[in-house]
């Protein structure tokens, strides 16, 4: 074809071809590339992805064709003031973007074409830090693809901005860890540690170490942990430490490696106050719980934002094995209270965990009459829910006081009276056989008849009391200060005081469905 058709005719034909066909033409006749000019509009045609001929050549690694298309003499010409056409042609190489916002440099870096990246990166008026539509620069694309030498070349360029940590977006180190490119990560650490910190953060504050742990890439995890100055306690923007992430992903190898680091803090808390140990208890992983408890610095008594300790969480989640593991821990405080004053025993009794109640009552440190913030004992909480087997265990314990009154003057017997109907009578019989007593108050009848939420509830209480004056009755029952506060809050306040609508009661009521799991 070259021997038959003049250049002008071939260029005329090229004007009717799309960019992919033009690329095929140049592949067949490479010498034609030097004749492609911007003025002929031969470089303006794009494919469905927005790629022009320059994009295609860069992506395919056609270094020779690109250099023929953009000879040095044209670059010199474009720098002369007033030479608009040559300048526009040069901009195709440095600034033209496809539908993804990628320049020819982005594409060459993505596919690891080192020579082309080196050549384009030296062009004047080039923005090395330009981002495509996904926010990636050319070096980030190279790191994501695992092209170590391309990454190194670009990081050596003084025009490359390395402020990823301040921008909180993905950076080459994090991308290499995320995509499992050990060689690329090693090159960055060994050659460019002065420009990219081993603790640099990507989006949401995640470090390269966290990425490697989440992805289960142990070779990279080990490499990062060995780095001088690495922060093994790094937190993301939600307070999740590297150890939290290792626990949640059940990465046992990473957990062992992290716990072996001399600077590790196994008691880091996320925004909800959860420690890695609490997370391990929640996901029911015996091996991880054991690994954490074996670390000398682990504090198994730390509570979350609701002061829920790992032991209380184990009771709530009905994990018998976790309860045993924790009770064998050398510094365990089995009677520690949560935000509402409930202990592990309180929760076990409330949720009907008979075996856990029996196990906790064996411990001298456990107070069987411990009160929550409403003054309820474990026995009273058991009566509220109606657990006959748990009640048997509690009433037979020599230290259990079955007549302790809560802050409303209710004894366990009073609570038993208002237990679910099918269980109320057997529970009351059990308590009375052991000497239980109670004082019957007017509101107890209303509660028994399930009328607490009815608009007639307060009227019923008023009709039962002798004085027929609700305020006088409440003052006699609860004192002047509490009564005045309740009256100030209106009907809602009166209901809350009479019918024990406290934050602890609401917490137990709202959380019972998610926590209740009857033993088989």
Q: Could you name the key traits of this structure?
A:
mainly alpha, Serine Threonine Protein Phosphatase 5, Tetratricopeptide repeat, 33 helices, 52% helix
Task: Report on the architecture of this protein.
Keywords: ANK repeat, Repeat. This is Ankyrin repeat protein. ANK repeats lie at residues 100-120. Pfam families: Ank_2, Ank_4. This protein has 520 residues and is mostly helical. Among the domains are: 1-130, Serine Threonine Protein Phosphatase 5, Tetratricopeptide repeat (Alpha Horseshoe), CATH 1.25.40; 162-264, Serine Threonine Protein Phosphatase 5, Tetratricopeptide repeat (Alpha Horseshoe), CATH 1.25.40; 266-325, Serine Threonine Protein Phosphatase 5, Tetratricopeptide repeat. The protein contains 33 helices and no strands.
CATH topology of the domain at 1-130: Serine Threonine Protein Phosphatase 5, Tetratricopeptide repeat
Number of strands: 0
What radius of gyration results from the CA coordinates? 37 Å
Query: Which range does the strand content fall in?
Result: under 5%
Q: Any guess at the CATH architecture of the domain at 1-130?
A: Alpha Horseshoe
Please describe the biggest sheet, giving its number of strands, its sense, and whether it closes into a barrel: none
Low-pLDDT sequence parts: none
Structural class: mainly alpha
The number of helices is 33
C-alpha termini separation: 85 Å
- CATH domain class name of the domain at 1-130: Mainly Alpha
């Amino acid at each position: 074809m070259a021997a038959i058709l003049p250049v002008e005719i071939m260029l005329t034909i090229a004007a009717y071809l799309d960019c992919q066909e033009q690329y095929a033409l140049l592949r067949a006749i490479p010498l034609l590339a030097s004749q492609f000019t911007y003025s002929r509009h031969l470089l303006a045609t794009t494919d469905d992805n927005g790629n022009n001929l320059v994009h295609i050549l860069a992506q395919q690694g056609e270094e020779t064709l690109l250099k023929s298309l953009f000879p040095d003499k044209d670059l010199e010409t474009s720098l002369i003031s007033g030479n608009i056409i040559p300048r526009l042609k040069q901009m195709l190489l440095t600034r033209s973007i496809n539908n993804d916002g990628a320049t020819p440099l982005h594409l060459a870096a993505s596919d690891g074409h080192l020579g082309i990246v080196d050549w384009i990166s030296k062009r004047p008026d080039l923005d090395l830090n330009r981002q495509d539509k996904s926010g990636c620069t050319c070096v980030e694309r190279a790191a994501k693809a695992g092209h170590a030498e391309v990454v190194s070349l670009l990081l050596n360029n003084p025009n490359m901005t390395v402020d990823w940590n301040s921008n909180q977006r993905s950076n080459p180190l994090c991308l290499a860890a995320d995509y499992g490119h050990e060689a690329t990560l090693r090159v960055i650490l060994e050659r460019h540690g002065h420009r990219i910190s081993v603790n640099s953060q990507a989006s949401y504050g995640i470090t390269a170490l966290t990425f490697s742990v989440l992805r289960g890439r142990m070779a990279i995890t080990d490499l990062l942990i060995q780095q001088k100055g690495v922060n093994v306690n790094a937190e993301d923007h939600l307070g999740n430490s590297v150890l939290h992430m290792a626990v949640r992903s059940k990465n046992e190898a990473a957990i062992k490696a992290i716990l072996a680091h001399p600077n590790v803090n196994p008691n880091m808390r996320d925004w909800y106050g959860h420690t890695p140990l609490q997370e391990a208890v929640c996901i029911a992983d015996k091996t991880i719980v054991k690994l954490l408890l074996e670390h000398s610095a682990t504090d198994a008594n730390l509570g979350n934002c609701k002061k829920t300790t790992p032991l209380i969480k184990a009771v709530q989640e009905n994990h018998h094995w976790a309860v045993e593991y924790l009770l064998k821990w050398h510094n365990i405080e089995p009677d520690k209270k949560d935000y509402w004053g409930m202990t592990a025993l309180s929760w076990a009794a409330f949720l009907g965990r008979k075996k856990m109640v029996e196990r906790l009552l064996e411990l001298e440190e456990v107070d069987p009459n411990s009160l929550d913030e409403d003054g309820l004992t474990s026995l009273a909480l058991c009566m509220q829910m109606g657990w006959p087997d748990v009640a048997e265990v509690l009433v037979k314990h020599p230290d259990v006081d079955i007549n302790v009154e809560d802050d409303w003057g209710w004894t366990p017997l009073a609570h038993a009276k208002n237990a679910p109907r099918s269980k109320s009578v057997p529970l009351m019989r059990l308590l009375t056989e052991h000497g239980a007593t109670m004082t019957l108050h007017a509101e107890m009848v209303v509660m028994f008849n399930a009328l607490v939420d009815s608009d007639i509830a307060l009227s019923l209480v008023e009709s039962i009391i002798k004085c027929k004056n609700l305020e006088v009755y409440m003052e006699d029952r609860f004192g002047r200060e509490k009564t005045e506060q309740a009256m100030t809050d209106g009907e809602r306040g009166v209901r809350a005081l009479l019918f024990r609508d406290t934050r602890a009661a609401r917490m137990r009521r709202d959380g019972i469905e998610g926590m209740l799991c009857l033993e088989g």
